[in-house]
Each structure stands twice: as C-alpha cells, then as structure tokens.
TrEMBL record:
Complexes and interactors: Homodimer. Interacts with IFIH1 (via the CARD domains), the interaction is inhibited by viral infection.
Gene Ontology cellular component list: cytosol
Binding site residues for substrate: G95, S96, G97, H98, D151
Start and end residues of each DhaL domain: 409-600
Cited function: Catalyzes both the phosphorylation of dihydroxyacetone and of glyceraldehyde, and the splitting of ribonucleoside diphosphate-X compounds among which FAD is the best substrate. Represses IFIH1-mediated cellular antiviral response.
SUPFAM superfamilies: DAK1/DegV-like, DhaL-like
Name under which the protein is recorded: Triokinase/FMN cyclase
InterPro entries (UniProt xref): DhaK_ATP, DhaK_dom, DhaL_dom, DhaL_dom_sf, Dihydroxyacetone_Kinase
EC number: 2.7.1.28, 2.7.1.29, 4.6.1.15
Domain annotation DhaK: ranges: 45-371
Name of the coding gene: Acey_s0248.g96
Keywords: ATP-binding, Cobalt, Kinase, Nucleotide-binding, Transferase
KW Manganese (keyword) present: no
Lineage: Eukaryota, Metazoa, Ecdysozoa, Nematoda, Chromadorea
Amino acid sequence: MFKLPAYLYAGRVLYSQIIDSRIPLAAVIRSPRQMSTITKKFVNDPKNAVDDALDGLVNASESITFDKNCRRVVLRADYADYCAKGKVALIAGGGSGHEPYAAGYTGPGMLTAAVAGNVFASPPSRHVSAALNSTSSKGGSILFIINYTGDRLHFGLAAERYKASGNDVRVVTIADDVAIDSAMSTVGRRGLAAAVLVLKVAGAMAESGKFSAAEIEALSNKINKHAGTMGVSLYPCSVPGQGKMFDMPNDMMEVGLGIHGEPGCRREAIENAHKIVDTIMTRLQKIVQFTKDEPIVLLVNNLGGVSQIEMGIIKSEAVKWCHQHNIKIARILCGAYMTSLDGHGISLTVLRLFDYEILEFLDAPTSAPGWQRADKLGKAETAPSADKGQSITVQTSSKGVALTKEQADLAKKCVTAVCNKMISMESELNALDGAAGDGDCGSTFAHASKAITERMKTYEISSAQQLLFSISEVFEQEVGGTGGALYALMLSAASEAFEKSITSKDFAAALQKASQAVQIYGGAKPGDRTLVDALHGAVEKIKSGETQWDSILEAATKAAQSTAQMKARAGRASYTAKEVQTKPDAGAVAIAAFMQTLLDTIKSNAH
C-alpha cells in the first residue's frame, strides 16, 4: 500500500526519492526525462554526497559539531552547556538538498540540532530520537517540521516516543505554500521558506532564556499563520548521479513548483522578471492579506541555481512592487535560504509583521553558518511583546505497568494470532490495494508479521507498553518508508494508554490515541478513505458510551466497508481516479481484521 516500485520509467526515478510522498507520482509521470543525461556535479561518490557535504559544513565552523552517536545529526558545539542551563532545545531537519536548511541554521542563536536525511528523503525517526536525546533539557524541546508526509510521520514518531518516556516535546508544523489551493486538501499546504523565519525567531527566543517552550511554540505557530510563500522555476533540479527530474520546454515556466520537484499550480509561457514578481506578490497579498497599514518581512529566496544578477533583479522588482502598492518593508532578506539542489527558480515569502518584537528576534546575533542577516529598509518601531503562553509540567518517565505471567502469555498468543491472520490475508489485501493503490498492503503486513513472529521467539514480554514499542520498532526498521512509519506511529501512540493499568478502558484509550496520532502526523481524516475510517468508527462507538467490544468491532468493520463509497483524499490512492476506487480501503480492512482477531483470541483464552 505504501511502497512504490523500486524504479519507475525504466529505472530513471529512484524509489528513495518518492517513497515519503515528497515527490507526488504526478511529478514523476508528467514528463519523463531523457535516459542519456546525467547532470554533472562536483561530487565524489553520489551515494556519499550528503555525508561529504556535512563534513565540509561542520569542519569549517567552530559553532557546530556532529552528534557522537549519529553523524546525520548536527549539534551546536556548546549543546551540553546550553541544555544544562535549562534552555529550550530546538530541532529541525528533513531531507537533504535544501541547504543551508537545516544544518546550516544550527548554532548559537538558532537551532540546537538538525537532522539530515538522504537527498529529498526524510531522516528515520531513530535519527530524530538521537537529536532529542542528545539535547534533552529541563526547558523542553520543540521539533520544527516542514509540512511533508514523510517528515510528519518520522518526526512525529520520534516525538511520540520521546513523550512516552516522560519528556516535554512540542511539534511545530510549518505550512506556508500559497501556490496551490489547500481548501480541499487533507495534507494542507507544503512547507517552504517561511520555515527559515520561524527558526530564526524561535532561536533568538530560546537563546535569551527568557521564554518557555510554550511561548516559543505559540509565536512560531502565529508566524506560520501570518506568512506565505510562492515560487516560480525555469529549469528543474537534478539529484547527484541522475539527470534532470523532468523536462521543461524552453518557452515555459512552472508556477508554484515545490522544493522537491513537485508540480506547481500551472505551467505557462515564460514572462519577464517584472511580471513574474507581480504574479507572485499578487497571490501572496490575496492569501496573506497584508496591507499598507501593516509592515512586512520580505524573503527573496534562491532555489539553488539562480545567478546573483538574476537575484538582484528579482529583489529590485519585489521592492518596487511593494513601493507601488504602498507596502512598507520592515526587513528584507535575499539569498539561498531554502534551496532545491540546483533548481533554477526563486520564491518570495511575505510575513505580516503582527508584532514588532519579531524584528528584534530577526536582528539578534547568531553564529549559525548558513544565516544571512536581514536588511533594514525602514525605521523599525517598538511595540508590546507577543502574548506569552504557559509552560506545562513534565510527566514522569514510565515503562508501563508490569504484566503477570498469565497476561504475558495471553499477549504473546494475541500477537501470534494477529500475525498469522495478516499473513493469511496477504493476497486479499494486495488485491484491494491494487485497485486504487500500489498493491502491496498485504505484502507489507505479511513482511512485518513474519519479522514480529521471529522476534517473539526470544522476546520476554514485561509490559503492554514495552511490547507495543517493540512491535513499532519492527514496522519502522523492517518495513520502513511511509507505511512503516505510519504503523510504528500508531503503535507508539497506543502504548501510552497502558502506562498505569491494563483494562478494557485502557484498550479503548489506546484506539483513540492511535487514531489521533495518525490524523495529526499522517494528515488523513475520517472520510478520506484510509485506515483512519476503521479506527474512527470504533472510537466514535466508544465515545457514545458503548463498552461491549463486539459492538465496537462491528462499528469498525462497517466503517472499513464503507470506504468503498468514499473518494480517497490521502495516501497513494488519492492520485487515482474515483472510478477505480470501488472496493474497501485495504488499510481499513486490515485494521478491522486485526481487531477481530485480537478479540477472538482473548475470548478463546478466557477462563
């Protein structure tokens, strides 16, 4: 269900580039590139490009260092002293290829840590966990995620596991793309260059030691709400060792192209810089709704392959546009802040200056190697500081209530029964998934079930919470990709329900937590034709006061079957025509079958 074939178009697009939903299938198939061209790059081995680049960044700066346990995690050099002072730890990251984001924004005054994935691929949650563990602070932690499915899942999984261990961690999701109407989209806007402004403001707040994690989170979310970004590209980017990601006719430009090569809102005949800027700024003004009565922060971003002459022209046109529309620019930034490898494109970001204290944070010093200072085009004024939120109490760490030998034996029987059921349903689930997906949902569950069965041979079950953690690790490590992260996230979230007891109410709470986690980090909602529908059916029955599990299971099964009448709005199936979405969603059917098997096993072993 979640994995795409290893290669598409005769091996010209790598599976690793599209598995985490950063590059939609439409971006791959719209215009396949020529087989013969591999873009020339200054690299050694393309497979080592990310690690070699990180070496260069870290070795040339005294402000940052590698994490001793994971070289894909970059830390500010004084992270130990910083965290010992109880200051808020700030962590961001994602796929590489957007440099200087995010490792280049690590250092005093900005991020505490950055996590780098492969090119255009989310880092695994264990690397995010390494960053969280190394920067543990009494002040709490904040994960900044640019809004792409893979990042939300992997960072979300790390956050849930960190919280389950009794730590205070918050998640800020940055979604500022205004090019494509997100009103009908489940996943919402894509995360773009406004992330840079959020990180700089949050970094200055955290560095001062005067603000709690809740206060930093609140202002970060408010900036995200009042910011927008839109880009235009003339030529596509290319991954080291490969050719251009797609063909672009010489007389055309892509309006709203994403930073991973995703399609924009349209292609149209190329215009001059003046008209391009007018198109972008007009759209930004409509969505962000800035007026002459409210100053703005303007970020002119180079997507990686635009010359300085062109950047100067775009900057000039953007400033002229603001002057012509009586818009005051309080700060302007121009440079390569969030790139798309060597993409020949630009983006413009506008932030409504709803609070003048933001300027103080933007102007605050930082030694992060990738930061380029903001310029002042007008006299900054002072105003009352932003509203400050309240901190929360850190929970006590727990591994869950211990199981008796009888309970542990029953738990192992339940796991074995569910695994056998999933293995037996492999063909059925693949057939359901093949109608509107990539046809491997059953294989995914079967593969995971075999790995879980093997682990159970030597695994000593101590608690329900630890058992679910262990199974979630199998999904993440053995299955991998978006699917592995999704099921691992569900299980990790569900495990929190068994911290203090194991009752029927706790099982109900586990379902609710699993459903909530998938919706928060996966983006799917009830009615989107996903496994969420089965979970939601059970949860709604529980909320109505139902305590009989037969009735709860019946609600989940009906909800799973009802997905046959729904139009997919999330997952791979959302890229297919509604006409082929005539059978129940495979993931929803699997969830219902899992619940049925679990209930049957418990009943058959009742004394």
